[in-house]
Amino acid sequence: MNSNRKYTFIIFTILSIQLSLAQNKIQNDSIKNNLLKEIVVKGKSKSEIVSEQAIKADVITTKNIQNEASTLTEIINRTSGIRVRQVGGLGSNANVFINGFQGKAVKYFKDGIPLDYLGSGFNINIVPVAILERVEIYKGVLPTYLSADAMGGAINLVTKNNSKNYLDLSYELASFNTHRATFNTLYIIPKTSFFVGFDGFFNHSDNNYKVNVKIVDPFTRNLKDVTVNRFHDDYTNYYGEFFGGITNSKWADLFRIGITYFDIDKQEQHGASMAEPFGQVVTKQKSFVPTLLYKKKFWNQKAYFSQFLALSKLNATRIDTCHCTYDWNGNRIDNPARQGEADSDGSLSNIDFKNFVSRTYFSYSLNPSQKIDANLVYTTYDRIGNDPFGSRYLYSGRDILTVPAGYDKLVGAVGLESKIKEKFSNTFILKYYYFKTNGTDALFASPTEEQVSNSSHRFGIAEAIKYNLTENSFFRISGEYATRLPENSEVFGDGLFEMSNFNLKPEQSINLNLGYRTQKMQRYLLEINTFFRRATDIIVQVPTNVIFLQHQNFDKVKGFGLEADATINLKKWLIFGINFTYQDLRLFGITNPNVKFLEDSRVRNTPYFFGGASLKTIHKNVFKANDALQAYWYYNYVNEFYLEPIPKNREAKGFLGIGSKANIDSELAIPNQNLHTIGLNYSLNNDRQSFGIEVKNLFDANLYDNFKIQKAGRSLHFKARFSIF
To answer: Which of 96, 208, 312, 544 is most solvent-facing, going by the fewest CB within 10 Å?
Structure first.
């Protein structure tokens, strides 16, 4: 109790000091300075404001790239410090690394709301760029309005917020029978404040690209390398949201009701690795999600209140009932002893997930240079289902999935933002985390059918400081003591290929960031950032065998990193960009004598050096007035890294281990990778219509991703887009 009082005293002392400093400064500020400040702020776009705040954020504005055939994951992958890892082609799961952290340590938001309530329906691997205004990527500390238990940062997908009638359509046709379409519209009823709209998209791909695999030679019985086509990896999804509401009324600046529905049908080619292919395993998801959003400013525009509510019901099924196996040539091998491919016992699971989310945000401007805000996010999950082929209790024989499982999570944050003389800005945040789970561990069926329950709570603190050297350059530093709670999907599994683990503990980490940024408008932008991480009980997804995955706690990881990013306008029509990232994340404090030799080894399956470059040409009024012709080239490089931890003395030698090979079995290493993409697009009528072509993986290089799963080779993409304003 004394300890709690001590921490409470320290926290409120810090708050009081900041309040006093800012208040004293305000009394000395002149009206002229305040007016100048307002003019400066109004002159900047929302993207510029976010990217130049004390909290580190990279902002990708989609306006200049929405005509390209690039996917959202590819665009994010071109950002320094970030790698997006996938387990296949279009529609496969995507795992984002931000400054070394991965998985659920990185949180996802849609317009500031945690994305969990939309399941896989709004995954970054399928969301079209055309429906987004910008993508905000936070590295380390999150602002108060993105209250979440994130350790590695977050990605906030900000959708277009139009105030006029519009209709936007796009269609993409690509290799591997890939089709992608978007349809987005808004209609404001004349002479009223009422509006209605629709956002929707469709994706399909056969994902039947070539891969290199090992098969058993029928004559020698030895393994041999062959090239085959993926033959059971179709993906189809539909997503649509109807919405309507009212704006600028006396009682609401915005009142919006939405109804979202999505449907996903996915064939599964393999499990956690490519060792065993499947020929009939299918997974499906569908969900119906009503939402409500309310926003209002009051008290002379000083106070702002926002409330979001969503209640979703998601159904997930897996069909794995083939008495057979398949080889990589697509041949079926009957085996009456098996009831399934992925699981020899088979599966016909049908699981319902119910999710409720409430997000409440409030802010109040104490004065022109000081704001206090608070955010509270409460989520609940309930799971129940059945599987006639699934695990059962030892004595009663009852299907384990029929036993309800529940998960509650509460994350709250209070923040104070202060500015002094346009030179110094500071953000101080307090956080609280709580979660509770109950269910049954599917791995260890209990004869007494006792439920497993777990709960925990933590406190967190964060500070971000920015100092302006000049009008166009600044330093910023941030630090936090962060907690990441186990997610419901990590605890329960997904009922498909992820197994449950009720023994997961919260992750905790000390994170420090230091950065410098300078720019000259229309000429160049340079940014350099360093980071330090010291984390315990990191939760990672690891294979338990060749088929299934499970989330487990790593003991301790620490490390540092350096990233740099530069954009240079060589000419008015020619833009060059380059970035690189080096991160040295290592295990420490290993107590198990059997693996003590791995002390100070790199974290498994994590790239430690990667970078990229880009070159764009933009010519306007080429063939007619208000048209534009753009050509572009993107390059990505990933240095060799390791699937498993290896002793430090066997790592690649030389400067930072770059450019040389490790002294290990080649099967444990993912080799150096080089990806080139080129494209050309032409737009008319001030970008209202556009037509483009893009070639990905120009040189048809062998590229690998999560746990050495091979990615697609060269592919050709055509895209057309039409807008009516």
So the answer is: 544
Rounded CA-CA distance 664/661 in Å is 8
Specify the range with the lowest mean pLDDT, choosing from 35-44, 514-523, 610-619. Answer: 35-44
What does the block give as tokens for 627?
């048209």
469, two tokens:
């050297």
- Cβ-contact 514, 465 below 8 angstroms: no
Torsion of CA 68, 72, 76, 77, to 10 degrees: -80
Residues 6+ apart with CB under 8 A from 36: none
DSSP tag of 595: G
Q: Are the C-beta atoms of 569 and 524 separated by less than 8 Å?
A: yes
Q: Are 104 and 114 in contact (CB under 8 A)?
A: no
What SS3 class is residue 46?
helix
Report d(CA 159, CA 161) in Å as an integer: 6
Q: Distance between CA 565 and CA 588 in Å, rounded?
A: 30
Q: pTM score, two decimals? A: 0.89
Cα gap 39→18, rounded to integer Å: 25
The alpha carbon torsion through 214, 217, 223, 225 (nearest 10 deg) reads: -40
Interatomic CA distance for residues 379 and 359, integer angstroms: 9
3-state secondary structure of 285: strand
Distance (Å, whole) CA 374 – CA 357 = 17
Burial environment of residue 53 by CB neighbours within 10 A (0 to 12, 13 to 18, 19 or more): middle
Mean pLDDT of 689-699: 97
When mean pLDDT is compared across 204-213, 662-671, 681-690, the lowest value belongs to 662-671
Mean pLDDT throughout 481-490?
Answer: 84
- Which region, left, alpha or beta, applies to residue 471 given φ > 0 means left and ψ of -120 to 50 means alpha? alpha
Strand order in the sheet with 153-159: 57-61, 132-138, 153-159, 106-110, 113-114
CA distance 685 to 723: 10
- CA 706 to chain centroid, in Å, comes to 15
Q: Which helix (H) or strand (E) holds 57?
A: strand 57-61
115 residue type, one letter = L
Length of the chain: 725
Exposed/middle/buried for residue 483 (C-beta within 10 Å: 0-12, 13-18, 19+): buried
List the one residue out of 21, 18, 116, 80 whose CA is nearest residue 579. Answer: 80
- Residue 268's identity, in one-letter code, is E
What span, in angstroms and rounded, lies between the C-alpha atoms of 290 and 260?
6
Nearest to 141 by CA among 431, 361, 379, 433: 431
Q: What is the rounded CA–CA span in Å between residue 412 and residue 353? A: 24
The type of residue at 457 is H
Q: Where are the domains of the chain?
A: 555-725
Lookup: tokens for 162: 């139009």
Q: Is 688 exposed, middle or buried (0-12, 13-18, 19+ CB in 10 A)?
A: middle
Distance of CA 628 to the CA centre of its chain: 32
Name which of 297-301, 602-606, 630-634, 698-702 the model is least confident about.
602-606
DSSP sequence for 84-126: EEESSSTTS-EEEEETTB-GGGEEEEETTEEGGGGTTTT-TTT
Q: Judge whether 440 and 446 are in contact, CB under 8 Å.
A: yes
Element (H, E) at 75: helix 72-77
Indicate the helix (H) or strand (E) that contains 573.
none
Report residue 46: phi and psi, to 5°: -60, -40
Quote the pLDDT of residue 31.
33
Q: Looking at residue 459, what DSSP letter applies?
A: E
The two three-digit tokens of residue 725, written as one number: 């304003």
Taking the C-alpha atoms of 90, 95, 97 and 103 in order, what is their torsion angle to the nearest 10 degrees? 170
For residue 522, name the pLDDT band (cuts at 50, 70, 90): confident
